[in-house]
Amino acid sequence: MTVFEILKFNREMLERLGRMGVRLDDTRYIDLFSEFCDMVNSGDKVSYAVAVLADRYGVSERKVYSLLRHFRTDCSHDAL
Hints:
- This protein is an all-alpha fold and 80 residues long.
- The protein has helices at residues 3-9, 11-19, 30-41, 46-57, 61-72.
- The protein has one domain (3-79): Arc Repressor Mutant, subunit A.
- The protein is built from five helices and no strands.
- The protein is elongated.
């Protein structure tokens, strides 16, 4: 299956996700966000969790904070 065929088959879902504010690149950071939630829920400080995850995933702390803010935003109801 080609990239074109996958995109064509999933176009409606991808367009709806895009309208809701989801970026295709977000999938790379699902585990990062899950690990952050686990760390904070187990009592780790937010700044410590951010520092650890930035190092583990090879991104800046600023990027981690940006991802956390992005993943916590409500999806747009206009896309439904």
